[in-house]
Amino acid sequence: MAPKTHMKKNNTLNLENKKFIVTSLAPALISLILITVVPFAINIINSLRNYYLADPKGPTFVGLENFKQILFNDANFWHSLWITLLFTAGCILIEFWLGLYIAGLLSSGGTFRNIIRSLLILPMAATPVAVSFTWKIMYSPSLGIINYFLKLFNINGAAWVGDPKIALLSVILVDVWQWTPFMMLIMLAGYMSLPTEPFEAATVDGAKDWHIFRYITLPLIKPVALTALLFRVIDSLKTFDIIFVLTRGGPGNTTETLNLYTYLKGFSYLRIGEASALAIIFLLIVIAISQIYLKYAGLEFGGSN
Amino acid sequence: MRKNKLKYFIQNIILIIVGIWAIFPIFWMFSMSLKRRVDALAMPPRWIFSPIIDNYIKVFNSQDFTRFYFNSILIGLFTILFVLIIGIPASYTLSKMNFRGKKDIDFWILSTRMAPPVGILIPYFLIFKNLGILDTRASIVIMHIALNLSFAIWVMKGFFAEIPKGIEEAALVDGCSHWRAFIRIILPLVAPGLVATAIIVFLFSWNELLFAVTLAGNASKTVPVALYNFVSYEEIDWGPLSASAMLALIPVLVFISFVQKQLIKGLTLGAISK
């Protein structure tokens, strides 16, 4: 008698479990469909249309015309893609090494280091529009504080975001200011979870700092670092705020990333068809870059723990 | 030994430079907001000046800033509400239960991070336009939920994972229904994590520009949008501009000073606990 009731209880427990799983996931899954599948489907439809928002006649079907136009006839697209890659590479390289270095300096803990760590949260939490605008003031050629500091060291200032040659670099520097702390925090968490034995052994053996870093720290911190990098790569491909406020893609189109180009195409020029096609191409590029990265880094995205 | 001391000293100097570098733009913004026009434009810059609050008064008088502030707070709170209601149960189930298709859902949630926001913005802009709800706070809330939901689920999954196994089993054996056990026993255990998530979601919504600047007109303008318009129209008037930028930073500064630990945990958890 006893085992049977036990089994019955187990069955109801299973049913109860299934009910819970379904009811707890349903709202989120429906929302996710609305966030991903629905907009993607609408983009596909619109990308196949000649859709000018100001045209009272409405959209007409044109097949793959928009894609052909973008891929084979649109120098601005390829230019914006190049700018996006330059921007991302510049940001990631600087932020990664700087973040890793600062995390190393902060990893020994103590009050002073904790205060510095707290200060470093400010750039990543501060409203991007507000700080971008402050950078704009600091970058001002004649009245900006940066050129003033440079002058103190007898270095000639620059027009920064106003100079086509260094506008992109100036925007990258603001991104570095904003997001190096994020890299640093994640690496710091990585440092904190490192086992102490290998370091003690190495120190006893009289290993040099650089060797400890190269052969012990770096391999141990690699999984955390690679994940942090992936997130930053994806996010910097999509950067909007600081570029929009600092340069709006200018001067000329020297800082016009793919994200900005897509946005302007849709909401300044009201070319919804082309903008939708650009959004799809943009998504495919992000996926491709992430996949290449994952393969190259030997990471598995999601699933495994 | 002496060499070590020297090394430590140099490290400290570098860290001080890093600290100054991190806060200088915000310090500079603050000092600008307290300067008279002549002081703000003075070259070499004036480090010592008699501070005034005229800029703040001007912002409140000319810019309707209180209304934008109210819009931003309201949009942030509603975003939190919906993100948590939709996200909490899902993140718990994804973290604690085993079922078929779990890996796929995990992957799906994570991959939404790859989608460029502009690709979501264009279709929803058209939908809102057709529904006639452009320039409403609701439309911005919907977009901010879309922007935050998968991130929030991911972060909360990490918090749920920290609960020791067996607690919910014990509750279930006691005859609680699963939902009851979840609400009564599990939720209180992760309350700090949920607060951290709520704050991060609020900050993201508070700071967000792309969706707000596209969807908001005069009626639903948020603080970042107001600031952006301000920047484009009154580029020369740095004082009031800095004052409104400082006002935009107030919630950020408050949260950083009071719940810093949870904030760091939430922000890094989203990236580490893959």
TrEMBL record, chain B:
<dbReference type="GO" id="GO:0055085">
    <property type="term" value="P:transmembrane transport"/>
</dbReference>
<feature type="transmembrane region" description="Helical">
    <location>
        <begin position="12"/>
        <end position="30"/>
    </location>
</feature>
<keyword id="KW-0812">Transmembrane</keyword>
<feature type="transmembrane region" description="Helical">
    <location>
        <begin position="238"/>
        <end position="259"/>
    </location>
</feature>
<feature type="transmembrane region" description="Helical">
    <location>
        <begin position="181"/>
        <end position="206"/>
    </location>
</feature>
<comment type="similarity">
    <text>Belongs to the binding-protein-dependent transport system permease family.</text>
</comment>
<dbReference type="InterPro" id="IPR000515">
    <property type="entry name" value="MetI-like"/>
</dbReference>
<feature type="domain" description="ABC transmembrane type-1">
    <location>
        <begin position="69"/>
        <end position="259"/>
    </location>
</feature>
<dbReference type="GO" id="GO:0005886">
    <property type="term" value="C:plasma membrane"/>
</dbReference>
<dbReference type="Pfam" id="PF00528">
    <property type="entry name" value="BPD_transp_1"/>
</dbReference>
<protein>
    <submittedName>
        <fullName>Trehalose transport system permease protein SugB</fullName>
    </submittedName>
</protein>
<keyword id="KW-0813">Transport</keyword>
<feature type="transmembrane region" description="Helical">
    <location>
        <begin position="68"/>
        <end position="95"/>
    </location>
</feature>
<dbReference type="InterPro" id="IPR050901">
    <property type="entry name" value="BP-dep_ABC_trans_perm"/>
</dbReference>
<keyword id="KW-1003">Cell membrane</keyword>
<feature type="transmembrane region" description="Helical">
    <location>
        <begin position="107"/>
        <end position="128"/>
    </location>
</feature>
<feature type="transmembrane region" description="Helical">
    <location>
        <begin position="140"/>
        <end position="160"/>
    </location>
</feature>
<keyword id="KW-1133">Transmembrane helix</keyword>
<keyword id="KW-0472">Membrane</keyword>
<dbReference type="InterPro" id="IPR035906">
    <property type="entry name" value="MetI-like_sf"/>
</dbReference>
